[in-house]
Design brief:
The protein is mainly α and 144 residues long. The protein has helices at 9-24, 32-49, 60-77, 88-103, 107-120, 127-131, 133-140.
Amino acid sequence: MPVINPVLWTLEIEIQFYIIAPLILQIFKMNKIMRRLILLFLIFGWSHFNFIPDLGFKNLLNYLPYFLIGIFCADIYLDNKISKSKNILFDILCLLSLLLIFTNPNENIFIITMIILLTFSERSKYFIKFLEIKFFLYYWLPLL
């Protein structure tokens, strides 16, 4: 009997998301402030209360907050009114967020730090370079 790749369960979740994504994205018909408030409420509410019963198999309902975080960050990133200029303050913010991810087990802190990292790392001067592979290979690897 062939061995099934154990990572394939993610495809099932992804297909479930693609099926309901058109329904979720109807939220973009609302004005910007209301849309973002509803997304934040859903992200934190869903994660905090975790009222999903265990169905015995993996389903989208267990992973919906992570998809909503991506939708929220894309909404902020694509907003043309927010400056895209690079600033060292974004480096500090991203570095602190990265440290919080590894030092704080709180789910809400994790959500906030992921939103910060996904939204603001592109606007950092140096942090984004740290995440690039060539920076790691040329500057950090020789030091190890």
